[in-house]
Amino acid sequence: MSLVKLENVSVYFKNEKNPKQQIGALVGMNLEIEPGEIIAVVGESGCGKTTLGKVITDIYQPTEGRMLYKGKDLRTLKGKEYREYRLAVQMIHQDSYAALNPNRTIFQSLSLPLLQHKLARNQRQAWDQLSELFNDVGLTPPEQFLSKYPHQLSGGQRQRILLARALSVKPSLIVADEPVSMVDVSLRISLLDLMARANKKHGISFVYITHDLGTARYIAHHGRIAVMYLGRMIETNQIQAALDAPAHPYFHALISAVPEADPTLREGRLTQLPLRSFDMPSVTNAPPGCKFHPRCPYAEAVCEQEEPRLREFKGGLVACHLVEKIRAGALNGE
Amino acid sequence: MNNRQNDRLAGVKAFFSVIWRNPMSRAGFIILLVFLLMAVFGPMVIPPLKSDYANRLQGPSAAHWLGTDLAGKDTLLQLILGSRDVLLVAAYAGLFAVLIAAVIGIVAGLNGGWVDRILMLFTDVVLTMPSFPVTMILSMIVRITDPLVFGLVLGLWSWAGLAKAIRSQVLGLKHREFIEASRIMGISKLNIILYDVLPNLVSYIAVNFISIMKGAITSSVGLMILGLVPFQGNHWGVMIQVAISQTGALLGSASMVYFLAPVICLMLFQLGSYFFASGLDEALNPRLRS
Amino acid sequence: MPTPILEVKNLTVEFSLHGRTIRACDNVSLTINRGEIVGIIGESGSGKTTLVSGILNLIQAPGKITSGEVIYHPRSGEPVDLRKLSPEQFAKHRWTNLTTVFQAAQNVMNPSLRVKEHFLETAWAHEPNLKEEEILSKARDLLSKVRLEDRVLDCYPHQLSGGMKQRTIIALSLILNPDIIFLDEPTTALDVITQWYILEILKGIQKEYGLTMVFSTHDVSIIGSIVDRLGVMYAGQLVEYGPVLTMFKQPTHPYTAGLMTAIPSLRDDVTKRKAIPGNPPDLAKLPDSCRFAPRCFAHAQGLCAGDKAATERLYPSHPEQYTRCYSWEKVFKS
């Protein structure tokens, strides 16, 4: 049985400028997260990946569809059962400074959930538990960090504290929303390694949300990837297979656009992205049919009329009418 | 355990060092401290107030530093005795106002929806009522005999502006990531209010507490000058009222000192409050401290 | 044959805070040649933004440029030390010879002015005699180079997306035919695909106008896409400088080497990635040794003592490459 399952989940918001219109931040999302797996959710801004994270952590409720935790509809969970879910599914935010109370010390902030949920019986126990956790995430000596205020620490240190905080309630799943994008580049891998270790050691599933394909591949290299575009999942597969042979034209364009640090590979890069326009349509102005068709170089009439559904293709799922044709074309050299 | 006690001590020390560092708030702090000591300890250490008709309406002298009043009682002693009531009334007013404002502001801000709308409607009505005339009317209806009741009456009309301000602070905080993080960690609503919201409001509330106190003093003095409050104590307002109505102080007689003394004390107190409040925000904000 | 366009010599910028003085930019010297694209890489506390601000005389209190020369070599005429100019004299160079595009430049636009008014005002501020039609025709030309339509001229900033605003600012910075353009984090906060286009556009403009470009960024992967020469900054000092190819393949400073290994990409060997240990430098509490020593693998292995005095100058390593690591031969002998 999967840990968390999203069944046809959609989240619609009212358009403030045009109250009759609904904005689909997330549309028709189906996703199953197994215990112990790492799944990377990638896409650009407005694709719905952050909304997805907030649905999984019950900050947003689905307008349509339902989310299951351990087979049970989340909305039917009450009392103790909901509390079990609440502790089992945690989040690490992108902005580590905004995610910590600026007026409380780290110890004060992190001991509160432990004491409230009786995971620690008193301050002394909370201190000991947190010290051990801090040692685990490389914040040594722990006293130095527990007694400080958030503004006295660096971004990388704060991000480790967020990880420790999530781990302190013994979760089964952690949603990490761009956890390293505000951390120095030289430190990002160490943070990702900590998450990978937590995944291996405690079997915690991770949903790693990012726009950076490089870090997504690093942390989920044995896991899956889900590619989002304008609120819809348009491709999903094992990550290495997806990166080696992207099926959806948007994903293909995205991979080609990722800058490559190695200057010797500069000549091999495309001088022209396979896209008809640069700018992403806004969620309020989603085009009819396939949401990507106005920018797709392979679009045909059917793409404008009918929105493609996710279907199986070479071991993964793709939402594209013409995927067989396009892939065939690519194999013949472009 | 040691670390947390050290934390608390360090916090208190940091607070006072910031107040001290800023010359304005240092001056304000000293002024308020003097008044506080005067109010708390003054009445205990001074000799009892004696009427001495033979020596009434005297100017300042060695025996009576600020002269005497209508009944020959020493002005300075009255000032000291009166300070206790002045501060008590102001403190009660501030306390009631802040309590009501905080509860209404936080509940409205956090809940939103119709709870918010109803509370804000109520707040707007109170806000637009002219507070001084209403307080005047109230004081005619309610017999104000002790500082607590007086403070309550004054506080009743001072909370509305602060409630709105607290509500907008809470609205801003509500969507901050650390509050969302607390919700994801299953922190109860009450704990979120106590530990996440309140600490971020403390400096705001403290600064406003001081200014509500200031306003309460002015109102209380105003009410007394108008003779609307049958206050029995030695409040400075009473002294001013007596000075104006019964001794013709404003006409430039010898009892000028009797009039001026409480007035100057009032001004000093206001000034002290203002100066102190100016440093409070910095002192209570951990980011500005280190 | 490279001719210098800008020579920075011993530039130092100090900040005084709470009675402490920190050197955000410490004795930095480098030469930029006409027509080349230079990248300055650095993380938090590196001083790269301060360096660019210092060159352009945009340092504000409590910061102060305490020493150094910034010699600008115009196409015709005598070289001039920009630091010796008065603010009015310097202003003549700004925008006409040296322009900047800062991070979040999108917020620099005046929300109450249309785009065309931005162009007109900027041009007239420096050359009041230009005719309106002259300026606007040049503006249209520039906008087409950044792949924006003419209609953008009539828009207000809020009507443009983030990527469009960034392109507008780039076009705006070129209105007076500058010699050299500084870009600080030009693609941070932009989506991957938008970033790709901005870099392509910049490459195109550079070729067409023979511009000299200086990028300062923390995004190491950009260097592979566009840069000719690379400078690496750490804790306020320039630690290595040289042609991008040899810098990438044969770094001669442990920090540069660490950076290249710490960035995950799409094609590398995931198991070979390693973060740089330790924390970013605290400029107020610098160690009494080589500034990088606390995090340096060579220092940890005993290959180098990390002597401070020896790091006060740069040493030539490979052709055209300079490093601050005095033990580079020992450390990088393979």
Record the SSE blueprint.
The complex is a heterotrimer of chains A (334), B (290) and C (334).
Chain A: E1 4-14, E2 22-33, E3 38-42, H1 49-56, E4 64-69, E5 72-73, H2 79-88, E6 89-92, H3 106-116, H4 123-136, H5 142-146, H6 155-168, E7 173-177, H7 185-202, E8 205-210, H8 213-219, E9 224-229, E10 232-238, H9 239-244, H10 249-257, H11 301-305, E11 311-313, E12 316-318, H12 323-331
Parallel strand pairs in A: 3-8, 3-9, 6-7, 7-8
Antiparallel strand pairs in A: 1-2, 1-4, 4-5, 9-10, 10-12, 11-12
Chain B: H1 2-21, H2 23-45, H3 75-111, H4 113-128, H5 131-141, H6 147-156, H7 160-174, H8 177-184, H9 189-225, H10 236-247, H11 256-284, H12 286-289
Helix pairs in contact in B: 1-11, 2-3, 2-11, 3-4, 3-6, 3-7, 3-9, 4-7, 6-9, 7-9, 8-9, 9-10, 9-11, 10-11
Chain C: E1 4-17, E2 20-33, E3 37-41, H1 48-55, E4 63-72, E5 80-81, H2 87-93, E6 98-101, H3 115-126, H4 132-145, H5 162-173, E7 180-184, H6 192-209, E8 212-217, H7 221-226, E9 229-234, E10 237-243, H8 244-249, H9 254-262, H10 297-300, E11 315-316, E12 322-323, H11 328-331
Parallel strand pairs in C: 3-8, 3-9, 6-7, 7-8
Antiparallel strand pairs in C: 1-2, 1-4, 4-5, 9-10, 10-12, 11-12
Written overview of the protein:
- The complex is a heterotrimer of chains A (334), B (290) and C (334).
- By secondary structure, chain A is of the alpha/beta class.
- Chain A has twelve helices and twelve strands.
- Chain A has a single domain (4-103, 149-331), classed as Rossmann fold, CATH 3.40.50.300.
- Helices cover 35% and strands 21% of the residues of chain A.
- The termini of chain A are far apart.
- Chain B has a single domain (11-289), classed as Orthogonal Bundle (MetI-like fold).
- Helices cover 77% and strands 0% of the residues of chain B.
- The longest helix of chain B has 37 residues, at 75-111.
- Chain C has a domain at 250-278 and 287-331.
- In chain C, 30% of the residues lie in helices and 23% in strands.
- In chain C, the strands form two sheets. Chain C has an eight-stranded mixed β-sheet, with helices on both faces.
- In chain C, helix 3 (115-126) packs across helix 4 and helix 4 (132-145) crosses helix 5 (162-173).
- Chain C is globular, with a radius of gyration of 21 Å.
- Chains in contact: A-B, A-C.
Explain briefly what this protein structure is.
The complex is a heterotrimer of chains A (334), B (290) and C (334). Chain A is of the alpha/beta class and 334 residues long.
